[in-house]
Specification:
CATH class: Mainly Alpha
Shape: globular
Largest sheet: none
Strand content: under 5%
Distance between the termini: 41 Å
Order of helices and strands: HHHHHHHHH
CATH superfamily: Glycerol uptake facilitator protein
Number of domains: 1
CATH architecture: Up-down Bundle
Number of helices: 9
Number of strands: 0
Length: about 240
């Protein structure tokens, strides 16, 4: 168990450092219009790459959750024991917070760096309402986070199914997370991961902290829904089209 929890800590650390680090350090490098800045397309790709590489590197040790919503979804889908939920989630959150701390130390090395806690997406934090990058309402943000997390788990459950093509699971999962970010960065700055939200949120100021509850509730609901749905889908006959 210690090795599995260590893998979850490292994988979540990598996800937050790589994904949020790209947003804080590289998304707008040099200012607007600078071709060296990667923009939100680059940030979306960075999040997908962290999951892809982390899953290949560590998935065989811990399952490569790196996300409390994934752990809850896998439990609801009958793929993960309830007794391991709390230890996994603690390891994930600690890894995310450590990544946020390291990212803050790196970012603070630039003269004049500061976090504006009133700004939408401050320090790559998630938000709704005035703290949504696009000013989206709490209702729109909730629907977005639930649906995006649910679809993410559908991909995870399908790509890791015993009958899925072997060895391609992390690729599908990484591409799915990239797509999710391309869709939802303007809405919530894309969470679909309570640990990711917490890891940078605790350093982003009071407003980000006050909205963290939302980015635990919505992704976990999405994860649970997808687990139930995929468990029902998994009861279909092995042969597609078999009418037995």
């Amino acid at each position: 168990m210690i090795k599995r929890l260590s893998a979850e800590f490292i994988g979540t650390f990598w996800l937050v450092l790589g994904g949020c680090g790209s947003a804080v350090l590289a998304a707008n490098f040099g200012g607007d219009g600078n071709p060296l800045g990667i923009g939100f397309v680059g940030v979306a790709l960075a999040f997908g790459l962290t999951v892809l590489t982390g899953a290949y590197a560590l998935g065989h040790i811990s399952g490569g959750h790196f996300n409390p919503a994934v752990s809850f979804g896998l439990w609801a889908g009958g793929r993960f024991p309830a007794r391991d939920l709390a230890p996994y989630i603690i390891a994930q959150v600690l890894g995310a917070i450590f990544a946020g701390f390291i990212l803050l130390q790196i970012a603070s090395g630039q003269p004049g760096f500061m976090i504006d806690p009133s700004a939408a997406g401050a320090f790559a934090s998630n938000g709704y309402g005035a703290h949504s990058p696009g000013g989206y309402s709490i209702a729109a943000a909730f629907l977005c986070e639930v649906v995006m997390t649910a679809m993410f788990l559908i991909v995870i459950l399908g790509a890791t199914h015993p009958r899925a093509p072997a060895g391609f699971g992390p690729l599908a999962i990484g591409l799915a997370l990239t797509l999710i970010h391309l869709i939802s960065i303007p809405v919530t700055n894309t969470s679909v991961n309570p640990a990711r939200s917490t890891g940078v949120g605790v350093f982003a100021g009071a407003q980000a902290i006050s909205q963290l509850w939302f980015f635990w509730l919505a992704p976990i609901i999405g994860g649970l829904l997808s687990g139930v749905i995929y468990r029902w889908l998994g009861e279909k006959p092995d042969v597609v089209g078999d009418a037995r």
